[in-house]
Amino acid sequence: MQKRGELSAEQLENTAFLVLVTLLALLGRFLLFPFESGDYHQFLQGWYGALKSNGGFAAVGMNIGDYMPTYLYLLAIFTYFPISGLTAIKLISSLADIVLAIYVMKTVRLKQEDPMYGVMAYAAVLFLPSVVLNSAVWGQCDAIFTAALVACVYYFMLDKEYQAVASFAVAFIFKLQAVFLAPFLLLLLIKHRVRFSTFLMIPFVYLLAILPAMFLGRGLKGLLTVYFSQAGQYKMIAMFLPNLYTWLPEDTPEYISAAAVILAGGLTLVALFFFYKKKFIFTDELFVSFALFFALFLPFILPHMHERYFYLADILSVIFAFYFPKMLYVPVVTVLSSTYAVCHNLFNTDFFSVQLLAVIMLLILVQVARHVVRLIDLQSEQTGQVPG
User: Backbone phi, then psi, for 356, in 5-degree steps?
Assistant: First the structure.
């Protein structure tokens, strides 16, 4: 008879598998650490060097880089360890991969009673090509904000709105791309699934995040406008992400990109109004489906999108497949498309038309949108008139 507190044989097997998978995933990443990307040479190497040569954490008050200071805090901590800057940068992102995989596993377990499915989701994320390339090759930190966004969805599914909004706030203080999930939160607000007062946590967390840098000498105005500075940095209307603007030339006039932003805002409002008028109750399945829809929708309709901006969609599509196994093609196509775009940046890969890839991603977006509408309509058919 199993005593209280003792692990069952199945739990021990799952734990052993998780440990083994994690070790193998880290080993594979360590072998890729020597690769030096263009972004490392152009940005990250200089940031880390400036922090290390100016006292580590004491240097976060300097105007280093164009990221939020929260990422610089992490880099500064690692300057005290006897490791190279390249290793530190990639180690931070690789550890974030594990946190990301944990939240994916927890979200899948809300749907699948068999713990094995959660374990497989954990492994799938750690070995997802776009994830491995992002952290271990490119040295990007997208796993950090994405882990927080997955946590946001997860806590909403548990009806923990404070933890959910706090998680979104954490994502936002690392990357502006957290806004890809902003319409999801706005939909929850207008459907009275979350209180407006809870969103006050976002500016509060933002202010807390910039305080250390401000006290160490960085200007408040610059800290408050980090994302505004980023927004005007890149002029190319499309940066090889397979989206709506890959058909336009690189020298597209700036007024067209401005109009494109207005168009994206209009399309987002249309989508939100459509779902607002629909009568439904949020279920776990709808939470996952809405989150994936907006993670695909925003990068597809916005200009100036970088190659890796389907990263959030990659992760959410994996969760989506565990909730809807018959739509396994969604993560397969999404991840392959995202990986191809990333490889173009890293290795100059160019054997497939990105314009054709954009058409394929449009079809995936349409399928996910249809799926969301079907879920809502099916709910109405099964329960009759559902309160909004």
Answer: -65, -40
Residue type, 306: H
d(CA 105, CA 115): 9
Euclidean distance between CA atoms 273 and 191, whole angstroms:
11
Taking alpha carbons only, the member of 7, 8, 11 closest to residue 19 is: 11
> Does residue 350 sit in helix, strand or coil?
coil
For residues 189 and 181, the answer to whether their CB atoms sit within 8 Å is no
Burial class (CB in 10 A: 0-12, 13-18, 19+), 333: middle
Q: Which of 227, 224, 159 lies closest to 198, judged by CA? A: 159
Q: Which of 276, 284, 267 is nearest to 365 (CA)?
A: 267
- In sequence order, which residues have a C-beta less than 8 Å from that of residue 64 and are 6 or more positions away? 47, 50, 51, 72
CB contact at 8 A, 143 and 134: yes
Distance separating alpha carbons of residues 140 and 308, to the nearest angstrom: 9
Rounded Cα–Cα distance for residues 116 and 106 (Å): 12
Q: What is the pLDDT along the chain (388 residues), one digit of tens a residue?
A: 445 555 678 888 889 999 999 999 999 999 999 999 999 999 999 999 999 999 999 999 999 988 999 999 999 999 999 999 999 999 999 999 999 999 999 999 999 889 999 999 999 999 999 999 999 999 999 999 999 999 999 999 999 999 999 999 999 999 999 999 999 999 999 999 999 999 999 999 999 999 999 999 999 999 999 998 877 666 789 889 999 999 998 788 989 999 999 999 999 999 999 999 999 999 999 999 999 999 999 999 999 999 999 999 999 999 999 999 999 999 999 999 999 999 999 999 999 999 999 999 999 999 999 999 999 999 988 876 544 4
Place of tokens 């936002």: 172
Cα distances (angstroms) measured from residue 285 to each of 156, 323, 334:
12, 7, 19
